[in-house]
Amino acid sequence: MSDEDALLRAITLAPDDDLPRLVYADWLDERGDPAFGGRARAEFIRLQCETHAVAKTRPQSASERERLRRLQARAYGLLRRNKDRWATGAAGVATQCRYERGMPERLVFPASVFCHTPGALDLVPVRWLCLTFDEKGALPLVRQVMADPVAERLKILELLLLPRMSRAVLSVLLKGRACGIVPRVNISFLTGTLAEEFRAEALLRAKFGNGVMLHIDSPPQPRAALPPNTIPF
User: Fold this and answer.
1) How many CB atoms lie within 10 A of CB 69?
2) Of 8, 102, 110, 207, which is most buried by a Cβ count within 10 Å?
3) What is d(CA 87, CA 91) in angstroms, rounded to the nearest whole number?
4) CA distance 191 to 202
5) At residue 22, does pLDDT exceed 90?
6) Is 231 helix (H, G, I), strand (E, B) or coil?
7) Is the pLDDT of residue 198 over 60?
8) Strands across the sheet with 215-217, in order?
9) Do residues 138 and 165 touch, judged by C-beta distance below 8 A?
10) Phi/psi of residue 104, each to 5°?
11) What is the DSSP letter of 191?
């Protein structure tokens, strides 16, 4: 394992801790590597970690809010200028990528790409994963997603499905274990009725319990505009 892989592994194993991220930023600074934008990436990591810490305090004064705004603007500017250089690994194949505290943590993939890129998220501290499915070969992909070790690190797994998949996918979920290890699973169907939603949710809750916090959208509501630190590729 390379030095960089070891540092990324440390971040992945302690996703809530800023220290491994700041250690990685120091390593990027020492390494330089202008082709990758290493020093800019190091600054970006530090800025987003600081932004996160400041935002947690819920700044009240005008000066504190202005400081937060400037940190966010600086980080966003770095991301806009360097996104192509930083789009390697999982960030390079995702259709959307949102950075949190300097690292890609929210990713959107076509399910087929995710399933045919084994290990792509091994060194990525992903917490929210959204997978889109088309109808062809969807069920084997759902089964593969549910069995993937990355599910154990997620806070939210979102599946975007075509309407005719709904019953079959619910069957897979009811027979599987993934909902038991992911705190929240969002299942969005492109059509359906409120009664169908309640029946599906009742089935899933009966198997996995109310504490799993399942949520099923049918149809999904229009998505809000992506936050500034989200880059669609």
Assistant:
1) 12
2) 102
3) 5
4) 18
5) yes
6) strand
7) no
8) 215-217, 184-189, 156-161, 128-132, 103-110, 96-100, 230-232
9) yes
10) -70, 115
11) S
Q: What is the CA radius of gyration of the chain?
A: 19
Taking the CA of residue 129 as centre, how many other CA atoms within 13 Å lie in the half-sphere pointing to its CB?
28
Task: Tell me what percent of the chain is helix, strand and coil, each rounded to the nearest 5.
Answer: 55, 15, 30
Distance CA 70, CA 170 (A): 46
Q: Nearest 5 degrees, angle CA 204-CA 209-CA 215?
A: 50
The two beta strands, 96-100 and 103-110, are antiparallel
Q: Which domains does the chain have, with CATH numbers?
A: 3-84 (no CATH), 91-232 (3.90.190)
DSSP 8-state assignment for residue 150: G
- Tokens 């949520």 sit at which residue? 215
Cα 71 from Cα 52, distance rounded (Å):
10
Other CB atoms closer than 10 Å to residue 124's CB: what's the count? 23
Question: Distance from CA of residue 36 to its chain's centroid?
Answer: 22
Q: What is the pLDDT of residues 96-151, one digit of tens each?
A: 889 999 999 999 988 888 888 888 888 999 998 888 877 666 777 777 877 788 87
Q: How long, in residues, is the chain?
A: 233
Taking the model in full, what pTM does it have? 0.75
Helices (H), 87-224: 90-93, 111-115, 138-147, 166-175, 194-208
Instruction: Sort residue 25 into left (φ over 0), alpha (ψ -120 to 50) or beta.
Output: alpha
User: pLDDT tens for residues 28-74?
Assistant: 998 877 767 789 999 999 999 999 999 988 888 999 999 999 999 99
Contact 99, 125 (CB under 8 A): no
CB 179 within 8 A of CB 216: no
